[in-house]
Amino acid sequence: RAYFDWNATAPLRAVARDAMVEALAEGGNASSVHAEGRAARGRLEKARAQVAALVGADAKSVIFTSGATEANALALTPALEAGGRKAPRDRLFVSAVEHPSVLAGGRFAPEQIDTLPVDANGLVDLDALTAMLAKAERPLVSVLLANNETGVIQPIRVIADIVHAANGLLHVDAVQGAGRIPCDMAALGADLLSLSSHKLGGPQGAGALVRRSDIHMADPLIRGGGQERGYRAGTENVPALAGFGAAAEAARTAREGDSVRMAALRDRLEDGITAATPEAVIFGAAAPRLPNTSLVAVPGLKAETALIAFDLKGIALSSGSACSSGKVQASHVLAAMGVEPALASGALRISLGWETAETDVEKLLTAWNTVVSTLLKRQPNIAA
Ligand code: PMP
Fold first, then answer.
1. How far is the CA of 70 from the centre of ligand 1 (A)?
2. Measuring from atom 5 of ligand 1, which residue has the nearest CA?
3. What is the dihedral of CA 103, 104, 110, 114, to 10 degrees?
4. Is 126 strand, coil or helix?
5. Cα angle at 145 between 101 and 347, to 5 degrees?
6. Domain holding 361: CATH number?
7. % of the chain beyond a pLDDT of 70
8. Residue nearest (by alpha carbon) to ligand 1 atom 16
9. Could you give the C-alpha distances from 292 to 13, 235, 260, 277, 384, in angstroms and in order?
10. Could you tell me if the CB of 154 is within 6 A of ligand 1?
11. What is the pLDDT of residues 101-130, one digit of tens each?
12. Which atom of ligand 1 is nearest to the CA of 207?
């Protein structure tokens, strides 16, 4: 099989599996004082340092969660403190191309949330951002580093400067960017940053919210035993977090080489697709993009039908976003970019990873010719 759905989830890295197996075998509660507990604590704190290193942060700034969805929910609260003082947020601004877990707005009421428009390439409209922030006294802004559907990379540093000049704080969902492009929290200017283990080759169900050291969320989602500095009560999932840490370290050390290799394969794929189907549209192609992601549509081709045809040929692709439990829904990302619904419904997401090989790309290109020509022939009225 050729797997091209790395933005949905990546295969577990061997180093992550090894770290998990060891933590499962050794056991121990990280809060216990005895040797077994201290060993579990050691594994947990090692993972925290590994995750922190991926984003150039202090280990103390890492709050482990069940994933990026929970990290986003924890970050998006009016009850923020900064520099040791209460700094409640009066409005939340989210870009129109955020993941649903950010669009949901955390603990902000719907009437406190504004959506930031994007241009035809999916980039946040910076003039609109500046104008809209004037409406709030202490805004919280959430913009993702790179989009999960298109791979388009936002100018986070520029956005951070605009937000900070408006007395605002910036949360960055870095799930798809981390491990693929530079993701240093201070260089980005992010005050809060979300990560997900399973996009980096760690297990599913683990993630982190990384905070600037002086930022504090006064209303944690889960209260109880005080784990994770009181931000998230409950016995830590040491095996999953050990796997997350190992994956984060591997992603950090392999990033530069992997990115160059993936970009070359992605370019070869896009060249092959546009040569075979010149009418194909590659979304966001005029903006900076991740090295691993292509979102492509061919007028007249339905994504669901194409996905099944590719699947039968041993190729795993995705239609737009796979984050909605198998539901086929029009992409809010493409809608925000002004893409016609008919074209958007044909969008196929091809995402690569560190194990993608040239033979996978050739397999997809060979299948592309037959699948696309067969399906377009079956829908002549639409294709015409
Ligand atoms: N944000 C983005 C941009 C994502 O792509 C995803 C995963 N689809 C998430 C958040 C949610 O991450 P998790 O699966 O860890 O909850």
1. 9
2. 148
3. -10
4. helix
5. 70
6. 3.90.1150.10
7. 96
8. 69
9. 18, 36, 10, 20, 32
10. no
11. 999 999 999 999 999 999 999 999 999 999
12. 15
The predicted-structure confidence for 155-193, as pLDDT tens digits, reads as follows 999 999 999 999 999 999 999 999 999 999 999 999 999
Please state, as a whole number, how many other Cβ atoms lie within 10 Å of the Cβ of residue 204. Answer: 16
pLDDT digits (tens, 9 = 90+) for 264-305: 999 999 999 999 999 999 999 999 999 999 999 999 999 999
Residue of 361, 259, 265, 376 whose CA lies nearest to 317: 361
The token pair at 128 is: 């609109």
Q: Does residue 196 line the site of ligand 1, with CB under 6 A?
A: yes
- Half-sphere exposure at residue 97, Cβ-oriented, CA atoms within 13 angstroms: 30
Per the structure block, which two tokens stand in for 177?
């960017």
User: How far, in Å, is the centroid of ligand 1 from the Cα of 374?
Assistant: 34
Number of domains in the chain: 2
Domain range holding 294? 2-8+255-383
Q: Of 104, 265, 276, 323, which residue is the catalytic one? A: 323
Phi, then psi, of 115 in degrees rounded to 5: -105, 130
323 is known as an active-site residue: yes
Asked if residue 99 has its Cβ within 6 Å of ligand 1, the reply is: yes
Q: Is the CB of 175 under 6 A from ligand 1?
A: yes
Q: Where are the alpha helices (DSSP H) in the chain?
A: 14-26, 35-54, 68-75, 100-103, 126-133, 156-165, 185-188, 238-276, 303-312, 332-336, 341-344, 358-378, 380-383
Q: For ligand 1, is residue 173 a contact (CB within 6 Å)? A: yes
Q: 157 φ, ψ to 5°?
A: -60, -45
Residues 24 and 56 in one domain: yes
CB 79 within 8 A of CB 216: no
For residue 197, which atom of ligand 1 is closest to its CA? 15
Instruction: Let me know whether 210 and 101 are in one domain.
Output: yes
Which tokens hold the place of 292?
């691993």
Q: Are residues 230 and 105 in the same domain?
A: yes
The answer to whether the beta carbons of residues 151 and 171 sit under 8 Å apart is no
Interface predicted TM-score (ipTM) of this complex, two decimals: 0.99
> CB neighbours (10 Å) of residue 308?
12
Rounded distance from Cα 7 to ligand 1 centre (Å): 9
Separation of 68 CA from ligand 1 center, angstroms?
5
Say whether both 243 and 259 belong to one domain. no
